[in-house]
Amino acid sequence: MSDAIQIVTTTSDLADAERIAAVLVANRLAACVQLAGPIESTYRWKDQVENASEWICTIKTLRDLYPAVESKIRELHSYSEPEITATAIVAGSQGYLDWIAESVGPATSAAGEAVTPSVQRAGE
């Protein structure tokens, strides 16, 4: 099994989804974030059945980065309790899995030295 995971979250609008995607990729917490929507969600919230249009964010990253990704999503998200679920990627093309691993975590220089990326904050 690979160390790659796919995290899913939903947002109330495209702007929030785009902001979360941009921050996660810029900070090397995700190799890729795919946005799809709008989708229609039906769910129970505070003992009421609710319906809402949402955007889904599908995030490709590594298992070790899950806590940092969850924390960043919570920091940026407008929902008080956002959906944040992770699924192991049990198989995939080796090239794609390698690309995920190379695209996240600390950046390295041409000399192989760790480079600290500038951290992008919400609204930047």
Q: What are the key terms here?
A:
124 residues; alpha+beta; Alpha-Beta Plaits; four-stranded antiparallel beta sheet; two-stranded antiparallel sheet; 6 strands; elongated; disordered C terminus
Walk me through the structure:
The chain has 124 residues and is α+β, with helices and mostly antiparallel strands. The chain has a single domain, classed as Alpha-Beta Plaits, CATH 3.30.70.120. 27% of the residues lie in helices and 36% in strands. It has three helices and six strands, in the order βαββαβαββ. It has helices at residues 14-26, 66-76, 94-103, and strands spanning 4-11, 32-45, 48-62, 85-88, 107-108, 114-115. The protein has a four-stranded antiparallel beta sheet. A hairpin with a 5-residue loop joins β5 (107-108) and β6 (114-115). The chain starts with a strand and ends in a 9-residue tail after the last strand. The relative contact order is 0.28.
